[in-house]
């Protein structure tokens, strides 16, 4: 496209529309959008919104101007060059690079102009998609286009949250219809018990990655169907299940219809687990294998990321509901009894009282599973342990990739840089705070006025100060996040804020789910507090926490506070957004902060242990929160050198910016996913698929044989003795009908204080089984008393992931 000239206004208009639709605009382009509509551009910084709302007459005038068309051509050429530029992914060894990774998520937070997100989960999906584009990792993403998205928030005069559902007019969103080969709008048909429903498809350009969004708002559908994709996280279990059917089943079908051949399918949370089921259904038909065999292939190429730290966070459906919606699909499409399918979502297959758990389904259709921080990996191993009975918790097959944020999205372009000297870095920080304070005053002050039966009622507009230590606290008002911990002693907080020599100001934001009355009451408490005489102008609660507001906050505040109840913050990402901007973190040792914190980079709350919902712990942590703010934090911020620079504070800023920004970036997270998950998953998927899926057939048969014969396995004799400083183990195992190569004998010791768990392979004396028994022997120097060891038999197959795909185990004791 370089050297392109745009001769006509029409051509230029088309190219301009394409540019505006592409999320991921660069600062170089600001002048272009500013020319189109300076007011809307300044308000939204969003090309598509600016173009969609600008005056047609004005735009036509611009397009008639050859110089302006030249500017468009130049930008289009730059975008094209960026699209073609190699990324990190291109540097990976050729044979290893997966050709296509399909990414499924219920929500995406990409831009405030595309409000189809609620919070953290969408943030992870959106930021990782942008990073994948930057790195040129070939990700194609799938989600839903919600007509109303998540609710928008406003407050009543008495500080109650009100939920609003403005309509997302698709013509005003940066999306366009997906067209088929004839140029017609692609429609997917999905057969459900009540008949055929129509699903529409849209596409969003995110840098060089494409996100496909599905919706059911086709006028040909009955009203109940049209409403499936109206709200994110609204409605009942039935609605959620139907959304997940559309996301997973129709989403996978769309990719097939468009000719994608994903080797890896990444499930961002269990919502999309049906994508892997649909994938297996398609493979079953194509290869003429059974569903179990097809699943052996599909799951090898499926990665499941779990995001919750509590069992209540998993979607659970009444089995009747699942059967109601999916019976025909399962019977006809999977050639499987419904009960057998429902068992995939249960801990105990035959337990009819047990609901259908989407996380259980997800782990059973995946070849790799991960949590989103080191601590959350550990917590998830405990949550998923019931599916691996008698396996040590440390061996439950859940790893972790700590989340990260897309730095270019959250960092202010004119921020300070860690390589600058103290005074310069500090002056940038002060400038950012000043802009922030002004922005809050300009944009959000009017929201303090209400019109009610008593006419117009305005609360005093609090003007924050540009030179005061500014604290930020914004998140979902869910009780595990303890958004009221800072309010434990309101008078003490008020004194802290109004301190005559070391004052502070606090900016808050956050929504509580419309069904969460407790969370809503906490918001009302904060609003009441912000209206107290003695804190006026020192506390602001901003309405409608969204991506734009988050960006303003993380760029402006000095200190980001987070007070979750450990270990329920799976990762948390908002604190990462302040890093590049020079903000510091003061947070509970939970989620990412548990691995990021050192005293050089910020402050920590809590003792790094779990205490449940213990009121005494809450009280002690509130005390520590106040104390730290009153002493160390106020001290560091207000201790100035002769040039009025807080050197200790700036030192922390520099350490936090340099060491944490790259480590907690989405770029690092996507690199981790690629090298540790996508590449091995793609390789395993290909091995199972190649050659008419012979390996998958063999593996399915192997697994069935183990399931049938594992019960025959016995320890015939175990002998141990110590000689010459070595421990000698000799074990005879009765294999029954199993073969020598099917199992492995291991010497195992539990983790103890000061000692890790140990697993030592004990070799068989011969490869052949004589009269159904096999003898194993090993002489080994043990690291601890022999009495701490026991022996066990586990499945073994070089191509099977144990225990994920074969969870059998036999212990000596
Ligand atoms: C970053 C972000 C979140 C996630 O923040 P947590 O740290 O997980 O609380 C939620 N909502 C918005 C609008 C965000 O920008």
Can you walk me through this structure?
With 813 residues, this protein is of the alpha/beta class. It folds into four domains: 9-84, no CATH class; 88-404 and 674-685, Glycogen Phosphorylase B (Rossmann fold, 3-Layer(aba) Sandwich), CATH 3.40.50; 407-664, Glycogen Phosphorylase B (Rossmann fold, 3-Layer(aba) Sandwich), CATH 3.40.50.2000; 713-811, Immunoglobulin-like (Sandwich), CATH 2.60.40.10. It is built from 25 helices and 30 strands. Strands 1, 2, 3, 6, 7, 8, 9, 10, 11, 14 and 15 form an eleven-stranded mixed β-sheet that branches. A hairpin with a 2-residue loop joins strand 7 and strand 8 (195-206). Helix 7 (120-135) packs across helix 25 (666-709), helix 11 (291-300) packs antiparallel against helix 25 (666-709) and helix 17 (422-444) runs antiparallel to helix 20 (547-556). The longest helix has 44 residues, at 666-709. Pyridoxal-5'-phosphate binds next to helix 7, helix 20 and helix 21.
Q: Any idea what the CATH superfamily of the largest domain is called?
A: Glycogen Phosphorylase B
Mind describing the biggest β-sheet? 11 strands, mixed
Mean pLDDT: 94
CATH class of the largest domain: Alpha Beta
């Amino acid at each position: 496209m370089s050297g392109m000239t745009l001769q006509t206004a029409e051509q230029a208009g088309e190219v301009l529309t394409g540019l505006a639709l592409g999320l991921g605009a660069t600062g170089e382009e600001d002048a272009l959008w500013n020319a189109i509509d300076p007011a809307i551009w300044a308000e939204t910084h969003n090309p598509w919104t600016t173009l969609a709302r600008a005056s047609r007459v004005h735009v036509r005038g611009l397009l008639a101007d050859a110089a302006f068309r030249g500017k468009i051509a130049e930008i289009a050429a730059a975008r094209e060059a960026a699209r073609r530029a190699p990324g990190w992914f291109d540097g990976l060894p050729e044979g290893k690079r997966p050709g296509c990774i399909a990414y499924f998520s219920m929500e995406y937070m990409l831009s405030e102009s595309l409000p189809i997100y609620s919070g953290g989960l969408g943030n992870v999906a959106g930021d990782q998609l942008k990073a994948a584009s930057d790195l040129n990792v070939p990700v194609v993403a799938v989600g839903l286009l919600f007509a109303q998205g998540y609710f928008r928030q406003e407050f009543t005069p008495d500080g109650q949250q009100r939920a609003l559902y403005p309509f997302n007019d698709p013509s005003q969103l940066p999306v366009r219809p997906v067209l088929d080969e004839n140029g017609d709008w692609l429609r997917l048909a999905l057969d459900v018990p009540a008949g055929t429903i129509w699903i529409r498809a849209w596409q969003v350009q995110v840098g060089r990655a494409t996100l496909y969004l599905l919706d059911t708002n086709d006028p040909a559908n009955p009203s109940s169907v049209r409403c499936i994709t109206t709200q994110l996280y609204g409605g009942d279990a039935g609605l959620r299940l139907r959304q997940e059917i559309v996301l997973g089943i129709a989403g996978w079908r769309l990719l097939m219809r468009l000719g994608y051949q994903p080797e890896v399918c990444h499930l961002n949370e269990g919502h999309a687990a049906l994508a892997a089921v649909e994938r297996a259904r398609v493979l079953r038909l194509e290869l003429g294998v059974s569903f179990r065999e097809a699943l052996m292939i599909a799951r090898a190429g499926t990665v499941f990321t779990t995001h919750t730290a509590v069992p209540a966070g998993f979607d659970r459906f009444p089995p009747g509901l699942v059967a109601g919606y999916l019976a025909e699909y399962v019977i006809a499409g999977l050639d499987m009894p419904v009960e057998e399918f429902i068992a995939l979502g249960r801990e105990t297959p035959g337990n009819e009282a047990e609901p259908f758990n989407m996380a259980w389904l997800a782990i059973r259709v995946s070849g790799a599973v991960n949590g989103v921080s080191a601590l959350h990996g550990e917590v998830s191993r405990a949550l998923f342990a019931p599916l691996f009975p008698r396996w040590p918790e440390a061996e439950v097959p859940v790893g972790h990739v700590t989340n990260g944020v897309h730095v270019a999205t959250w960092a202010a372009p004119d921020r300070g840089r860690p390589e600058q000297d103290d005074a310069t870095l500090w002056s940038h920080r002060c400038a950012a705070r000043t802009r922030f304070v002004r922005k809050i005053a300009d944009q959000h002050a009017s929201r303090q006025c209400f019109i009610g039966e008593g006419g117009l009622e305005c609360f005093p507009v609090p003007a924050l100060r540009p030179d005061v230590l500014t604290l930020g606290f914004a998140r979902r008002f869910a009780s595990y996040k303890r958004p009221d911990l800072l309010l434990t002693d309101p008078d003490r907080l008020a004194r802290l804020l109004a301190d005559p020599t070391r004052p502070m100001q606090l900016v808050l934001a956050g929504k509580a789910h419309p069904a969460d009355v407790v969370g809503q009451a906490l918001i009302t408490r904060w609003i009441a507090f912000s209206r107290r005489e003695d804190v006026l102008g020192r506390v602001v609660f901003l309405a409608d926490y969204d991506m734009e507001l988050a960006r303003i906050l993380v760029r402006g505040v000095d200190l980001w506070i987070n007070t979750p109840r450990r270990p329920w913050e799976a990762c948390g990402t908002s604190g990462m957004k302040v890093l590049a901007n020079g903000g510091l973190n003061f947070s509970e040792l939970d989620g990412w902060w548990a691995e990021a914190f050192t005293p050089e980079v910020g402050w920590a709350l809590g003792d790094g242990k779990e205490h449940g919902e213990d009121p005494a712990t809450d009280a002690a942590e509130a005390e520590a929160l106040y104390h730290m703010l009153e002493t160390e934090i106020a001290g560091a911020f207000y201790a100035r050198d002769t040039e009025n620079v807080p050197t200790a504070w700036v030192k922390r800023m520099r350490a936090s910016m340099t060491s944490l920004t790259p480590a907690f970036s989405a770029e690092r997270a996507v690199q981790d996913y690629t090298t540790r998950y996508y590449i091995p998953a793609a390789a395993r998927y290909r091995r199972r698929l190649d050659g008419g899926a012979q390996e998958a057939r063999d593996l399915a048969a192997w697994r069935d044989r183990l399931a049938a014969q594992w019960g025959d396995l016995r320890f015939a004799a175990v002998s141990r003795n110590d000689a010459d400083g070595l421990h000698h183990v000799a074990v005879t195992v009765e294999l029954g009908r199993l073969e020598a190569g099917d199992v492995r004998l291991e010497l195992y010791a539990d983790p103890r204080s000061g000692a890790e768990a140990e697993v030592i392979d004990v070799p068989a004396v011969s490869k052949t089984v004589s009269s159904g028994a096999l003898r194993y022997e090993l002489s080994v120097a043990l690291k601890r008393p022999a009495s701490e060891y026991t022996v066990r038999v586990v499945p073994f197959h070089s191509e099977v992931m144990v225990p994920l795909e074969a969870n059998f185990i036999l212990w000596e004791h």
